[in-house]
Specification:
Blueprint (H helix, E strand, L loop, with lengths): L1 E2 L13 E3 L26 E3 L8 H10 L2 E4 L5 H12 L10 E2 L5 H7 L7 E6 L2 E7 H4 L8 H4 L6 E3 L4 H11 L4 E4 L5 E5 L1 H9 L13 E4 L5 H11 L3 E5 L6 H12 L6 E6 L2 H10 L3 E4 L9 H5 L5 H14 L3 E5 L5 H9 L4 E4 L14 E2 L5 E5 L5 H7 L5 H9 L7 E4 L7 H19 L4 H7 L1 E4 L2 H6 L8
Helix pairs in contact: 1-2, 2-8, 6-7, 8-9, 10-12, 13-16, 14-15
């Protein structure tokens, strides 16, 4: 990447820059390969941040099926992480995991569970075999104690588990059914597929391990017996180990990385966070394969306002990526992305992947319960991992005094409403939007791969008015 004119003397964030189109031989966005080269096996340059309100098993399954990877937070007990890893790796690569209800379960139970799926439906199963499909519409204005067997609709699109996605799409289209139900040879339920899901299965490549299971990562902190924690996660089968702390350029992080390397992990090790070439080199020399870049750009983070510490994210990624490349390593741009353009610019600056947190919090796949405000708008609650709420969860086993002391100093928002976009309520909808933007950015640069994108990107600096000029108008002026 190089600047259109000389590099400015001040640091830049994503809103400060734009990319200049170049002559291109890439005819279609579908000709662009978005696979990463950082060893994680991801086929999309997207990493879901290790935040409790965002990175759960449902998110991990869905994102990995489309090619990204999710990092399970460090405050999740190791046995629970092991269960999540086993669950995710056992998921089907094409069919989504449905909500299953028995015919005798109530409409109230159905309405409590259906919002946990973007396709807004559940499969009614009797002795493992699907007997009907129930949606929110069928539960409307029905006695909440009625049984779902009384209100369910028929399975109008029943397919075999070996059905190709394109064939499934055609079957759904012909039946005008919202959901295809896939069964095995014995007639037992395997999964479900929507028209859009079938289409996505032809466009995306799942991120799978050597055994064909979906990939997943997990995080640990820098305190306590780091080696033992790392060993537990590696034995659970994670595909990437993330050593995580807010201030990565410190002695304790170097010691933690040394301890992790002592257990000889066979998976990539990511560590962070830093915002300088010096910090990047320190973590790589200590054993990191991937360095997380970003201090303070996240939507839930108050670090910069509380401490004055941090750095505009585009410049941080640019400098750290250059330092990492010189040592044959990689960086993840962690935080600060709010539009697809930001993801594209982070990749142009040299990031191998982009970490996303709060942007994905307001989706059906995030772990929180779906709620509605007084105006009927659906939302989920998100919170920062250094906030009082997160600290309270993380220190639950400590003494009251120690918990009170740690809770006294907090950084981060403890409760924020993340509204679901009615047009894009699922994380896959957001992935579609992001990939559309990134693929198009690559075609504008004349790049068929992310490596070519970084090499060919030409970036200019703009005023606030220049950024505003590029924003679409919802209504006329």
């Amino acid at each position: 990447m190089h600047f259109l004119h000389s590099a400015p003397p001040h640091d830049l964030t994503y809103d400060d820059v734009f990319m200049v189109p170049r002559r291109s031989a890439v005819a279609s966005r579908y000709d662009v390969d978005l696979s990463t080269s950082d060893g994680t096996g991801a086929t999309l340059p997207l990493v879901v941040a290790n935040m409790t309100a965002i990175a759960g098993k449902r998110m991990a399954e869905t994102v990995s099926r489309r090619g990204g990877i999710v990092v399970i937070p460090q405050d999740i007990p190791a046995p629970v992480v092991a269960d999540v890893v086993q669950y995710v790796k056992s998921r089907h690569l094409v069919f989504d995991t449905p909500i299953e209800l028995a015919p005798h379960q109530t409409v109230a139970e159905a309405l409590a569970l259906i919002p946990k799926r973007a396709h807004r439906a559940a499969v009614v199963v009797d002795e493992g075999r699907p007997v009907g499909v129930v949606t929110e519409a069928e539960c409307a204005e029905v006695d909440r104690f009625a049984q779902v067997g009384q209100v369910m609709g028929p399975v109008t699109a029943l397919i075999d588990e070996d059905t190709e996605p394109r064939t499934a799409f055609d079957a759904l289209d012909a039946a005008r059914a919202p959901l295809a139900v896939a069964v095995g040879a014995d007639g037992h339920l395997v999964g479900v597929l929507t028209r859009t899901g079938a289409l996505r299965a032809t466009l995306y490549q799942p991120a799978v391990d050597a055994s064909g299971g979906l990939r997943i990562a997990a995080a640990i902190g820098v305190n306590g017996d780091v080696a033992a924690k790392a060993k537990e996660l590696l034995e659970a089968g994670i595909d990437c180990l993330v050593v995580d702390t807010a201030h990565g350029h410190q002695d304790r992080m170097v010691e933690a990385l040394s301890a992790v390397r002592g257990v000889d992990p066979a998976v990539p090790v990511a560590a962070g966070n830093v915002v300088s070439a010096e910090g990047t080199r320190a973590l790589i020399e200590a054993g990191a394969d991937i360095v997380k870049v970003g201090v303070g750009p996240g939507a839930m983070c108050t670090t910069r306002m509380m401490t004055g510490v941090g750095r505009p994210q585009f410049s941080a990624v640019l400098e750290c990526a250059e330092a990492a490349r010189a040592l044959g390593r990689h960086v993840w741009a962690d935080g600060g992305v709010r539009h697809p353009r930001d993801v594209a610019l982070a990749l142009a600056a040299g990031a191998s992947s982009v970490m996303i947190g709060s942007w994905f919090a307001g989706t059906h796949e995030s772990p929180g319960d779906l709620m509605e405000d007084p105006d009927g708008r659906a939302f989920k609650v998100s919170f920062g991992m250094a906030s009082a709420r997160a600290v309270a969860n993380r220190t639950a086993t400590e003494s009251a005094y120690d918990r009170a002391k740690k809770g006294l100093y907090e950084e981060g928002i403890s409760s924020s409403r993340m509204y679901l976009d009615p047009a894009r309520p699922g994380v896959e909808d957001l992935i579609d939007e992001i990939c559309s933007g990134v693929r198009s950015a690559c075609t504008y640069a004349g790049a068929a791969t992310l490596e070519e994108f970084h090499e060919r990107a030409v970036v200019g600096v703009q005023s606030a008015a220049g950024f505003h000029e590029g924003r679409p108008l919802a209504t006329s002026w």
